[in-house]
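== Fold encoding ==
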Amino acid sequence: LRGYAMPNPLSVDERLENQFSSWDIAPADKVPELLFALRTHGTVITIFRDHVQQTITAKITQLTAKTIRLTPQNSPLGDIQFHSSWKTLCVSYARDYALCFLTHAVVAETNAIELSYPMTVRIRKGRIHERFPLKVPMTARWEIDTKVTVLGDVMDIGLGGFLGGMNVAVFNDGSCIFQRGDAGQITLTKSDGTQWQGLAELRREQPVTQEEQYPDELIGPIIGFSLLGFAFQFKDPQEALALEQFLDGTLETGLGTPR
């Protein structure tokens, strides 16, 4: 078994095709309503820029017929590489559905981003488990006996059942093989560099670019992007408390998100 490193930053078109091409296209007449719901509920949106690894989290503050205005959440825009005319991919996880859309930056100011109005919005419905989106970007590193290392972006965290678990978007070049039920050390890292370490068990995997079906007990080799579902494991209540403290202020738990 071999670990692997994350690939070079993808273009937003590649990310859209690899991670979200299986999502449904929302009816055109529903797009304004969906975007308005994101603004009304203050739902966090993660913005991916073309060929740039760093992401931005933001909230919609204004909608017009031609543009969407957002306010960055994780840091002042002046501290982030961002330029007008850049192609961007926006992804948002709400309580019962998830949305993504491709657009362009129109204006990039110190405290705001203005994007062109999306022509197409993709939607994934029927989220079974209540999940909390993140206010700030967070990465996950999962290791099994130093033989397998999985690196990815934390998409959301579920707090049901002793702090539940999380979904992590990962890319595998085919060199990693692991099974459902494998447990290993997990390291979560916030955008400010702070970390939490613990144990997590792999519970499920949803391939997005893989066509061949594998037996239920086997996950991999996965060539492409997958959404991995992990459950946290704790030896004592203090470990759970440490994770709860680490997550304090990082989860979007207000109106429009799970309660």
About this structure: Residues 31-41 form the longest helix (11 residues). Residues 1-7, 210-218, 255-259 have pLDDT under 50 and may be disordered. The first strand starts at residue 24 and ends at 25. The helical segments are 12-20, 31-41, 237-247.
